[in-house]
Amino acid sequence: MTTTARAQGATVWLTGLPSAGKTTIARILGTRLKAEGHRVEVLDGDEVRRFLSAGLGFSREDRNTNVQRIGLVAEVLARNGVLAVVPVIAPYADSRDAVRERHEASGTPYIEVHVATPVEVCSERDVKGLYARQAAGRLTGLTGVDDPYEPPLDPALTLETHLLTPQESADSVHAVLAARGLV
Question: How many C-alpha atoms does 93 have within 13 Å on its Cβ side?
């Protein structure tokens, strides 16, 4: 009987302001990892919120519940050999810490990446029109503007996406995965 090595999974959690570039980086990274033969799932925050967390609002409690649900799915996938790439705002440090602790408890690698794009740059990108709506008074509770964002204190990687291309950012995340023996 031959044994095959089980693929090593991990969660790559990309946190940052809206329009920071999290999803773009995640998709580029996911495409590369799949091309290399890895099992990969990109758990986009907007998609997960629409389906797994439908009905939740944007209060601190609801945001925490959303992050914990995404964190659970990511940890289960990663524990079972999938590279879970998670582009989610996750504005509160305690919510992200709880996700990290869940991973640590199961011995599952967790890599936090801070997509550290200045709010002015995010506002210019304004991928979903959130900053324009907030400026026009049609939206309140925008993370980083009139709702808090608590940047990670000790991320595995900080990406200043206003100084890097999306490809360079994704390559930097890949380099961290490679350095840790996960790819």
Answer: 6
Report how far apart the first and last C-alpha atoms of the chain are (Å, whole number): 26
Phi, psi of 116 (to 5 degrees): -95, 75
Q: Which helix (H) or strand (E) holds 158?
A: strand 157-159
Q: For residue 175, what are the contacts with CB-CB under 8 A and spacing of at least 6?
A: none
Q: For residue 102, give the amino acid letter.
A: R
Is the model's pTM score more than 0.85? yes
Q: Is 115 helix (H, G, I), strand (E, B) or coil?
A: strand
CA dist., res. 179 & res. 43, Å (int): 23
Q: Report the distance separating Cα 8 and Cα 166, nearest Å.
A: 25
How far is residue 51's CA from residue 18's CA, in Å, rounded to a whole number?
19
Distance, in Å, from the CA atom of 68 to the CA atom of 45, rounded to the nearest integer, reads 12
Helices 166-179 and 22-35 pack at an angle, to 10 degrees, of 60
- DSSP labels for 82-145? -EEEEE-----HHHHHHHHHHHHHTT--EEEEEE---HHHHHHH-TTSHHHHHHTTS----BTT
pLDDT single digits (tens) 64-117: 999 999 999 999 999 999 999 999 999 999 999 999 999 999 999 999 999 999
> CA 147 to CA 164: how far, in whole Å?
26
Q: Using CA atoms, how far apart are residues 157 and 111, in angstroms rounded to an integer?
A: 8
